Amino acid sequence: MNFDSGDVSWLLVSSALVMLMVPGVALFYGGLVRRKNVVSTMMMSFAPLGAIGLLWVLYGYSLSFGSDQAGFIGGLDFVALNHVGQSSSLVYATTVPHLAFMVFQAMFAVITVALISGAVIGRVKFSAFMLFSVLWFTIVYCPVAHWVWGDGGWLSRLGVLDFAGGAVVHINSGMSALALAMLLGPRKGFPDEAMEPSNVPIVLLGAGLLWFGWFGFNGGSALTSGGLASNAFVATNISAAAATLTWMLISWVHRRPTLIGAATGAVAGLVAVTPAAGFVSPIMGIPIGAVAALVCYYCMSLRMRRRIDESLDVWAVHGMGGIWGALATGIFANVAVNDTGISGAIYGNTAQVARQIVGILAVGGYSFGVTRLLGTFIERTIGLRVRQDEETVGLDISQHGERAHGGIVT
Amino acid sequence: MKKIEAIIREEKLDAVRSALESLSYMGMTISEVNGRGKEGALVLQWRVGDYKVHFQPKLKIEVVILDEDVPEVLRAIVDNARTGEKGDGKVFVLPVENAVRVRTGDDGEDAI
Description:
The complex is a heterodimer. By secondary structure, chain A is mainly α.
């Protein structure tokens, strides 16, 4: 077998980088919530590494990347890693072992589920979130991953561009987050009571790990280790920088430049460049990131005005940031950057924007609608929400019997 | 003996501590507390917009002093903790039954 050792190394390292984003999300979310819900919030980010990590190898990879079934879902040929071994796949990432491609994709499934948890912190039953995770992963994540990335997936055949998961990861998690938060209702006291972040430095540590891991997320999505990976890597950094600066300036105009604002801006820029990183010139990261910060900031503010407790703004940042990224890909894509891509509107191909809109509507509509059904099903069976006294005392104690910070001295 | 409980602005700690030292009161206990008086809520920023925290962070100084020193100590604290704005804090004077120094077992006024 003639593997490219650079490609293999980069993809394995990238898989590890994306894995590190999961505790990154846990820290980012954990720092933003009130101190009685820190453990519970971090647990909902971390638990998918267990559950989804297993389901992915058992059947998720097969449903996503198995032989195409009518453009909608993968077949069962890769169940329990059957035919997934040291030799390369015949279709995907042919310069690396099939196992390396499989594990890289595993981390995307894990983090997408972890992201949704930001919508429901402080009031969802842990058992309900775990049941939701399993069902959502099976019925929403796997098909959507197949549509966009699977060989023969209908959005892929249509020519929808999604380099590293703007639709699969971000629009998908963001729209589901909104649906689930609306079903669950607001936390007790929202929006009148102050919901003070428990630990701002921890928010920054989480955002820092996300930024770091995102080099693997986007750079690794080249599936090779040459110019395209470098293009994606640099575009990612430029967009994150532009969005960090923009959010900081918006916050400064409002009153003072806040650290959690800058950290949130970074995430918004990283989200928006995700579908574009390997299709656009790196310098296009500037408009992509700057507009992402404006879009996400405005959507967050709109969400607050509508008094919807989508608590950690998964919709505003990942959903709307992802939608902007999908559109931006249709606008700025350049076939000279990536010959497997298509040029976008600024190179005269306005039809690509229309294709991207189809992708947005299909993924966003499917994830919102199916999440609503799944949430309703769980509400009517085991129940979605903790009892009021459990919510008041905090989910750390009521769901996990732990607290984030121990007692005095001893 | 009297116990003084002074709730003051965090930034006034150094001035109040030196004033107490100059009256030879070296021993004191401080704690970070949250409370409110007439100054209203503290406005902090979220990712977008603001939120209000109803209790402002303050420091509480506890010091036990001799009865005859009360007027002088009160003046020292008040003069050094005041800015003239709402939120300067309050000082409470409480009677103390007894005190014991743990190291020597001395009690009463010898212990403070």
